[in-house]
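input
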Amino acid sequence: MLWFTILYGVLSYAITTNAQGICDNAPTPALRITCQQITNWDANTRTVRPTTRTLVAAPGAAGISPLGVDISSVASSTTPSTVYDCLDIACICLFFGGTGGSSCTLPNGQTLRKAIRKEFRVMTDDERQNYITAMWTIKGNGDYDDIARIHSQFITSPGAHSGPAFLPWHREFIK
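output
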């Protein structure tokens, strides 16, 4: 076992050293940074321990599943603990103190609806002012800083800025 640990250490060092040498020879500073990011992703991936996969059965009737799990208790354990866990307006309505389920009426009398994304330049003056006030509010309560931290750590989640996951990632984390 000791020889395996030593061999792994030597190979890891050799791979890292070789990759850094390759990055140092990149023709432009931008390509050097990209090379270093890819090298870091590779090194980080190699240090992650494999996780055990959980079997998710198809939906079925309440009761005992073929695996011996009480399905009703599993279903009841998925109650959202925060508004961010909600998947529909009826769930969000409860967190905002509204009534009426999917046709939610908020305590101030307004109807809760899905948000409509608009480009800043096409907003009305009132919408623009509401947006600016909301941004200052989330900046003041720390939510903006949390979003910025998650967004800035894209090196740990490369799908955020490359490939087909770019738009869904940003829609989910920056809404």
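quick obs: Residues 2-47 form one domain.
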